[in-house]
TrEMBL record:
It comes from Pontiella desulfatans. Coiled coil: none annotated. Belongs to the glycosyl hydrolase 2 family. Residues 863-891 are annotated as: Disordered. This is Beta-galactosidase BoGH2A. Residues 872-888 have a biased composition (Polar residues). Residues 695-785 form the Glycoside hydrolase family domain. PANTHER family: BETA-GALACTOSIDASE, BETA-MANNOSIDASE. GO terms for biological process: carbohydrate metabolic process. Residues 628-682 form the DUF4982 domain. InterPro entries: Beta-gal/glucu_dom_sf, DUF4982, Galactose-bd-like_sf, GH, GH2_Domain-Containing, Glyco_hydro2_dom5, Glyco_hydro_2, Glyco_hydro_2_cat. Residues 1-24 form the signal peptide. Residues 92-172 form the Glycosyl hydrolases family 2 sugar binding domain.
Length: 1002
């Protein structure tokens, strides 16, 4: 079934894969030809190994385009093996096939097949011959297929195996979710990703550009060649040129180095993302043999342990977010215009940096970050060992990591947006594999870091410990030579439009940063336990306000990458979540791209354009007279609040960067006005909404191009009769789509809504939902219509019901049609709908919308009469204020000293003896491992026990001792007052210690 094969890594020299040519004649003139293989693929989730054969019958398979993520199509199911980690979406095996024509296979050319991304365990066949494989699902790779191609018809088959799940701690997607490109070029060529551009010297008047180019000679004869390079600015004007003679050794690689100078360079930055293009060519005599274009930027980086991060010599705070690789309803196969919209939303918030957590992204992501001026912490691995049942770390890391490092760095090193390389996440505080050294083989211009990785890297990256009181400051004091960045801090949670006044901490047993609560009792009881308050009072260890205040006021903290920018699919079982929770909403923007309140907090801190934002909304029927904390976020000097025209006070921002009033609720208009220099420069208005009566459509593109790639985002908003947004509306909308357009899906941001995305109906969530559409190659009008039965679907006494329909053109004009609505209640005879009506009993209402007298659209909804549930959570601070704990040292002398690990228990298994290992708990709160003569920081500890006036402070007492090991929080319990033994209960195991016996100074 085909000949034997060898799998090649992306970064391996292409010449090593190419056949040797006996001819001594100079190669033909030519430039590389690239073709993205987007259309004409067939796909099946049930293909057999015979699918790799050219003659296999795939006529019954589905036709798809690439990029493609079949998992996001669903359905969401509780029994899917991905579980809550993968958002309950399906996994499995996928086969792709494509046939393509080559008029003639030129023996003087090399043919490469480039895969941008494929999840995971990818195997590739060309004309029945296996040509390569790649297990990692987040890496780009290419394969030399020169010897496998035929003149005429060729068959490409790709097997993507995602059967063993979960294989990530989040939703990874399934399939060829990145571009597939066929490249043909002369056998004398620039190596794929082999041109490296750096700017070692930059002044206002001149920039030096250094070029290192790896050249391949796949012929049997050495050649004298010239490498010529020119630099074009963003207007296409040539600003520099040079050339270098080089001897191309036969059958192998050569390296050319060139230098150029650019006068008065434009620098790349988030404010001005100037880009240049290096155009290089290989010439033999007068013939151009190969060309290469490399886009780059001119910018300088400095990471100072005392003063923080400097971009182009200017002190710059990293205003960053962490981002997973899905984009909500489109999954991982993100169209360019969808990705561009998401990045634009972040930029408008003031975000200037993204950490790609915890894996590389597709090349288009870095291209857009270059263009839009967004700095990137480029991250390669989640872990270096198992972190999920069937992940890369468990099965493939040891064999593949060096290849993956090489390919990752070589692919991404020319992007000016990339400022740091992160080599791992919460996989140990030390670079035990010396991955940093492997990175620096290919690029020494950027530092290495990692999530909760402190040693063996250039920049110490703090995840969870960075949010624990005192730990970050203690690390800086002990390691003053180390630059520090918050790689994953803060962790806060919000559900759009959902509020609670009491503080909620994910884990009440860990140390937190206290703050004054927004209220001393709970006043909101709607929603669901899995929803999270949109006040800044729901999170892990530290709030957004406390964290950013510390970051901006502490010079040596370079910045922060908060968890996360957008909500992401998966990780839903974390924190006790269960079906149907498909996410846990850490994002400051929901799955649809609708901002939550935290978005505006960051905008108030990260932007200069005058703005003011209010929370919560001002529609709270039944709460008349209840004092509601009203919060403003603003970058103005003062903000004044008005209720129904009455001034409630003008205030500057508090020390914690917000402004708070307590306002007895009454319906009407709530307005905030921001002032600078005494002049009103910004305002925000909320009006109390009545019953929902209107469906409003808005699209960001109403003239879609017929090019198969254009995108339109359609927002559905529920409003009342006066045009006021209804912030509680959760009503089903049924859609009718007419014209040459493809529905990519609907969503609403609700963490609990597991409706399949390509259903032509979706409920709104707190007043909003989103649909994404992609054009075809056909021209003609495109119209989307929607209808819904609006009102409170659960009501105690009665509710107002309205039946509404609307439509929008995504291309062309709406026709002049007549629409009529009829409806029935509990199967009654249908009557014509004319106006909203009251409903005071449980009922199922069905409606038919007729267009020009013919049935056009149907919709249905059930309304239930009954008591409203009161939702609360045991993790709320029921006392209304937080325990004012701070990290202030160990608190117990008996724990200080050396301890020897004697046994370990995994899960509920048997306790087993282990190889002796000594730990040193020092008196300042640090824990060190003592392995031979080496002493390494392991974590931090502190002791907590109830106040007892009769307790001896030198006695261990009966309290608990805590220790942080990266993100693992261990709770220690002393077994005796003499503290001769102790155990550590963590999330994964229990460790047993006794006093160290091998050292003389216990």
């Amino acid at each position: 079934m085909g000949r034997k094969f060898k799998a090649w890594g992306v970064g391996l020299l292409a010449a090593a894969c190419a056949p040797l040519l006996a001819s001594a004649a100079p190669p033909a003139t030519g430039v590389p030809q690239t073709e993205k293989l987007v259309f004409g693929w067939t796909f099946s989730r049930s293909g057999s190994d015979l699918a790799s054969e050219p003659g296999f019958d795939d006529s019954g398979w589905e036709t798809v385009r690439i990029p493609h993520d079949w998992s996001i199509l669903g359905p969401y199911e509780k029994t899917n093996p991905s579980g809550g980690q993968g958002g309950y979406l399906p996994t499995g095996l996928g086969w792709y096939r494509k046939t393509f024509q080559l008029d003639e296979v030129d023996p003087a050319k090399q043919y490469l097949l480039l895969f941008d991304a494929s999840f995971m365990n990818t195997e590739v066949w060309v004309n029945g011959n296996k040509v390569g494989e790649r297990p990692y699902g987040y890496i780009s790779f290419y394969i030399d297929i020169s010897q496998e191609l035929n003149s005429g018809r060729n068959t490409l088959a790709v097997r993507v195996d995602n059967q063993q799940a979960p294989n990530a701690r989040w939703y990874p997607g399934c399939g060829l979710y990145g571009d597939v490109t066929l490249i043909s070029k002369n056998k004398i060529n620039f190596d794929q990703w082999g041109v490296f551009v750096t700017t070692p010297s930059i002044t206002a008047g001149q920039a030096t550009v250094a070029v290192e180019a790896t050249l391949n000679n796949g012929t049997a004869k050495a050649h004298k060649a010239t490498v010529e390079s020119i630099v074009l600015d963003r207007a296409g004007k040539q600003v520099a040129s040079t050339k270098q003679a080089v001897l191309l050794a036969a059958n192998g690689p050569s390296v050319a180095t060139l230098g150029l100078r650019i006068e008065t360079p434009e620098l790349w930055s988030p404010e001005s993302s100037a880009l240049y293009t290096l155009v290089s060519s290989i010439k033999i005599g007068s013939k151009t043999i190969d060309t290469n274009q490399t886009r780059f930027g001119i910018r300088s980086l400095r990471f100072d342990p005392d003063e923080g991060f400097f971009l182009n010599g200017k002190s710059t705070k990293l205003k960053g977010v962490c981002e997973h690789s899905d984009a909500g309803l489109v999954g991982s196969a993100i169209p360019e215009k969808v990705l561009r919209r998401r990045l634009r939303i972040l930029k408008e918030m003031g975000c200037n940096a993204i950490r790609v957590s915890h894996n590389p992204r597709r090349p288009i992501f870095y291209d857009l970050c270059d263009e839009m001026g967004i700095m990137v912490m480029d991250e390669l691995f989640d872990g270096w060992g198992a972190k999920s049942k069937h992940d890369y770390g468990r099965h493939h890391f040891k064999e593949w990591w060096k290849t993956d490092v090489k390919d990752w760095v070589r692919r991404d090193r020319n992007h000016p947006a990339v400022i740091m390389y992160s080599i791992g996440n919460e996989t140990g505080i030390k670079d035990t594999h010396n991955i940093s050294a492997e990175v620096k083989k290919y690029d020494t211009t950027r530092p290495t870091t990692g999530g909760s990785l402190f040693y063996g890297v250039d920049v110490a990256g703090f995840n969870a410990p960075g949010g624990t009181p005192g730990i970050l400051e203690k690390f800086h004091e002990e390691n003053p030579e180390k630059a520090v960045v918050l790689t994953e801090v803060p962790h806060t949670l919000q559900t759009r439009g959902f509020y609670r006044t009491l503080t909620w901490w994910r884990n009440r047993s860990i140390m937190v940063n206290p703050f004054t609560a927004y209220g001393d009792k709970q006043i909101f009881f709607d929603g669901h336990e899995r929803y999270s308050s949109s006040y800044d009072n729901c999170g892990v260890r530290i709030t957004a306000r406390t964290c950013w205040k510390r970051t901006k006021e502490t010079p040596w903290i370079m910045g922060e990458f908060r968890w996360t920018g957008f909500d992401y699919l998966g990780e839903a079982s974390f924190g006790g979540g269960s079906w149907p929770a498909r996410i846990w909403n850490f994002g400051i923007i929901d799955l649809c791209g609708f901002p939550k309140d935290h978005y505006f907090f960051y905008q108030s801190q990260w932007t200069d354009e005058p703005m003011v934002h209010l929370l919560p909304h001002w529609t709270h029927p039944g709460m008349e007279g209840v004092g509601i904390p009203v919060v403003a976020y603003s970058n103005c000097e003062e903000v004044e609040l008005f209720l129904n025209g009455k001034p409630l006070g003008k205030k500057p921002p508090r020390d914690l960067l917000d402004i708070v009033w307590k306002v007895p609720y009454e319906a009407g208009t709530l307005k905030a006005v921001g002032y600078r220099g005494g002049k009103a420069v910004a305002e925000k208005i909320f009006k109390t909404a009545g019953a929902p009566t209107t469906i409003e459509f808005a699209a960001d593109n109403t003239n879609m191009a017929a090019d198969r790639f254009d995108i339109s985002h359609l927002t559905t908003t529920i409003k009342d009769a006066n045009g006021n947004f209804v912030p509680w509306a959760c009503n089903r909308i049924d859609y009718q789509i007419d014209g040459p357009v493809e529905l990519l899906g609907f969503d609403n941001g609700d963490p609990l809504d597991v409706t399949t995305h390509r259903e032509t109906h979706r409920k709104t969530f707190n007043g909003l939902s989103l649909g994404i559409f992609q054009s075809t190659d056909q021209d003609g009008a495109i119209e989307v219509s929607g209808a819904g039965i609006l009102g409170r679907t659960l009501f105690p006494e009665s509710t107002t019901v309205a039946i509404e329909m609307n439509r929008i053109a995504l291309r062309g004009d709406l026709d002049d049609a007549r629409f009529d609505i009829t409806y029935s209640v509990n199967g009654s005879k249908a009557v014509r709908y004319t106006a909203p009506f009251e409903l005071n009993e449980t009922a199922t209402i069905k409606a038919i919308i007729a267009k020009n007298g013919k049935p056009f659209l149907t919709t249905e909804s059930t309304f239930t009469k009954g008591p409203l549930p009161r939702i609360t959570s045991p993790n709320f601070d029921t006392e209304g204020s937080d325990d004012p704990q701070t990290f202030n040292g160990p608190k117990d002398k008996e724990v200080v000293g050396k301890w020897r690990l004697t046994a370990i228990q995994r899960g509920k298994g048997e306790v087993k003896k282990v190889a002796p290992r000594t730990f040193d708990f020092d008196g300042s709160g640090s824990v060190f491992t003592l392995d031979g003569t080496e002493r390494n920081l392991y974590g931090y500890w502190w002791y907590d026990y109830p106040d007892d006036v009769f307790e001896n402070p030198d006695d261990a007492g009966v309290g608990k001792l805590f220790m942080y090991v990266t993100d693992q929080m261990c709770v220690m319990k002393l077994d005796s007052q003499e503290a001769e033994t102790m155990s550590i209960a963590s999330r994964f195991s229990t460790w047993y210690f006794e006093r160290g016996k091998s050292s003389g100074n216990e």
